[in-house]
Amino acid sequence: MMNLAIRIRGLRVVRGSLTVLDDFDLDIQRGSLTGLLGPSGSGKSTLMRAIVGVQKVAGGTVEVLGLPAGDKQLRDRVAYVTQAPSVYADLTIRQNLRYYARVLGAPISDVDRAIEQVDLGSHADHLVGRLSGGQESRVSLATALLGRPEVLVLDEPTVGLDPVLRVQLWELFNRLAADGATLLVSSHVMDEAERCERLVLLREGRLLADDTLPGLLARTGAADAEGAFLHLVEKAEQEVPS
């Protein structure tokens, strides 16, 4: 228990007549980099929202760092980056980060560090509204790095980025995990699986697998993560009663 950053038991999320997650269990170790993979509509964003405490749940428990998800004591210990940028277009990158540093009570010295970590140093004094979509997403990521949170929940942080920048960000994620942070990173791009310490595969709200990539490949006999995912999907469909 002490080594768990996230503990989920029996999580159930319902929207209208649709059950998005049902009787869902998951453990995520502290200091790990876990990839949350699956196609659009598989429940990835819903699960992430439940972990940060902003998702209404119908049942079950979600604990983060030993506390109920969303607990006020987690405010500066858990960072969440959504797919939609959450920064101000009429402020510069530096002004945005200075504002969020004050809100979080993070040291001002964190501002330049976070900007450099997402490779935006040369754009620090540019208005966010004049940045590209990928740059704006990186500004949101930079705000999440302020204060050195213990848990980072990142929803599709590399979507729309060029291959070189994607590689650089995954290198950053691995460095953060090596320094003790716990990262849960969602993606629908299967080739990003090889950059994760552990993989959680979702489809239609079901947990298909929670394993390392070598473990998945050994279990399925597949050559890559995409092949393993397809194998597990086919197996799951065969197990559904007709």
Automatic annotation (TrEMBL):
Gene3D superfamilies hit by this protein: P-loop containing nucleotide triphosphate hydrolases
Lipid biosynthesis: present as a keyword of the record?
Answer: no
Under SMART domains, the record lists: AAA
**Domain of life here?**
Bacteria
- Entry keyword annotation includes Nucleotide-binding: yes
| Cross-referenced InterPro entries | AAA+_ATPase, ABC_transporter-like_ATP-bd, P-loop_NTPase
ABC transporter domain spans which residues? 6-229
Q: Which UniProt keywords are given for this protein, alphabetically ordered?
A: ATP-binding, Nucleotide-binding
Q: GO molecular function of the protein, one example?
A: ATP binding
PANTHER family referenced in this protein's UniProt entry, alphabetically: ABC TRANSPORTER G FAMILY MEMBER 20 ISOFORM X1, ATP-BINDING CASSETTE, SUB-FAMILY H, MEMBER 1
Name the record gives this protein? Multidrug ABC transporter ATP-binding protein
